Amino acid sequence: MKKSLVAVSVIVVLGAAWTGVSWYTGKLIEQHMDEEVAAANTQLQTAFPKAGLKVSYQDYHRGLFSSKLRIVLQPDAAAATAGTSALKTGDEIAFIETIDHGPFPAAQLKKFNLIPSMASVHSELQNTPTLKPLFDVTKGRSLITADSRVSYSGASSSAIDIIPVTYQKEDSQLQFSGGTVNVDVDKELTAMKLKSNIDSVAITSKNQWGQLEKVTLSGFDMDSDTQQGKFQVGVGDQNLNVKQILVNVDGKDAVSLENFKLVSKFSENGNNIGGQQDYTLDALKIQGADFGSAKLSLKLDKLDGAALKQFADNYNQQSRALLMQQGELDPQVYQQQAADLVLANLPLLLKGNPSISIAPLSWKNSKGESTFNLQLDLKDPSATPAQTQDQMLSQLVSKIDAKLSIPLPMATEVTTQVAKLEGYTGDDATKLAQQQVQGIAAMGQMFKLTTVKDDTISSSFSYADNQVDLNGQKMTLQEFAGLFGIFGGSVAQPQTEAPAPLAPPVAPVPAQ
Description:
By secondary structure, this protein is α+β, with helices and mostly antiparallel strands. Among the domains are: 139 residues, no CATH class; 118 residues, no CATH class. The chain contains eleven helices and 23 strands. A hairpin with a 2-residue loop joins β12 and β13. This is DUF945 family protein.
């Protein structure tokens, strides 16, 4: 009897303690809501200063073990009056938040997660008038739901579900399989781990020729482990995979990209940021014909961290301002101004004397592999302003090494495939391809841009200290400029007689 009494007493004490801690946790969360909303608005203003939006919370109801509230995104009053807000007056995008208080939130206990937490939060979109068209598409369901666990340290872990959607309007259709996103974020929102997966997305619409075109992306997944470095620039690792991108026109497969992958790794080293991105594509198929595989390894080094941060801030702020004017500008004017923004801020990226390496860019098919390799070392131009165009190159570039290799059988195979797409068949396609490749090879030799040896078109170019080496022919930068009419120089005649290009015979007529 005494043992039973002790057991009951322990349960009562633990229950009372749990109730008290849960009540205190709920009160603590409520007390910090203003602080969290203010931080969210600061981040929103920093990221989208021209959006004219603000975040608020409404209808907070705190209970003993759980609380409910609405998180609302709406136009800022001043921006709405001026007509510069992304939302109109009276519009709102709202999330319904259900918060289970710690230390053992009920939502986590249901998952047998016994790790003490400050709260577990379930979030879903509310069907407001602003979002009614979206809820019509999803048949009254929230497109996005999220379940998050918030630790006492302030870090959070979220599992986000996006439901499947099918939307049809006239000849256009969206088919979305749904997806998942898992995110872990630290208290300061400076470190994040993310994993996402989408089975398929298909968009069908009529193209400019009135054909029904369907683009399908399948097998998409991404994971990243990134953090803000000391310059507030994101560094870390990222991986992206797409199993297939398929373009279908009027019921026939036109283009297929198979197994595209991206691996990215960036890190800090003192005041510099550097890293590498590797791209691979297992196969490109056009109308069923296999055009081969590709890969690219791109390495960036010695990017000045502070200058990169300033470049990003300047470009983001200016591009957002330009985006707000997009509807008022001619498309060509808009594109030109967007390009000008990059060029205007580009000198900032040269501050650390960065280097760019491509090793290699390759294209491979059943007949061989073509490769291009580049090492480009750049310089900060601010120290010695250029007076002439040729001085500008020496002011910006410290060193260039470039090599190109194209096996003739590989090039012929690619060109044969292109000829078949144009209607040529059998020997006609092969003969036409051989003529075109031989003509290009001879022309490259005539202008001393390439050489042909061992059935391979090759080219090498190097530059340093105002000296150029083109396929073994050494010259000054000014002589090189004159040879090819660069920087307004006159075109010099080749010093030695080059082989004349093969005169291509009359092209075969495509088979009917």
